[in-house]
Design brief:
Largest sheet: 2 strands, parallel
Strand content: under 5%
Number of strands: 2
């Protein structure tokens, strides 16, 4: 599991959570400052890579559907799917 102090990057759905960095949200009748807009752009450009990986995992439909076998089998299948995704993106240039 994760440590309680583990920092995370999330989208607007995770605002207010502990150790979660989220996008700045515009307040009613106010605009975001240029610094906030720049921070949102950096965070979004970092998160898009993760969103694409989640999409690749969902192609296999294992994490999104009910699994009816033993948990040990589920764990092996999920790790296999993750390995296949890693193999697929191996030819891509990964961000630092």
């Amino acid at each position: 599991m994760f440590r309680k102090s583990q920092p995370f990057s999330g989208d607007k759905a995770y605002q207010g959570g502990e150790n979660i960095t989220t996008l700045h949200k515009r307040k009613p009748k106010q605009e975001l400052t240029q610094q906030q807009k720049d921070e949102n752009k950096v965070l979004s450009s970092n998160r898009i890579f993760i969103e694409h990986l989640i999409r690749l995992l969902k192609i296999f439909r294992i994490p999104s559907q009910r699994f009816r076998l033993k948990f040990d089998t589920y764990e092996q299948i999920v790790l296999t799917v993750c390995g296949l995704v890693r193999l697929r993106i191996g030819s891509l240039v990964l961000p630092n």
